[in-house]
Amino acid sequence: VLATLFVPALGWVAFNILSPLFNQLDRMSEMKDDAAPSVAGAVGLGAAASLLMAQNAEAATEISQLAASDNRAGVLATLFVPALGWVAFNILSPLFNQLDRMSEMKDEAEP
Question: What phi, psi does 71 have (nearest 5°)?
Answer without folding.
Answer: -95, 20
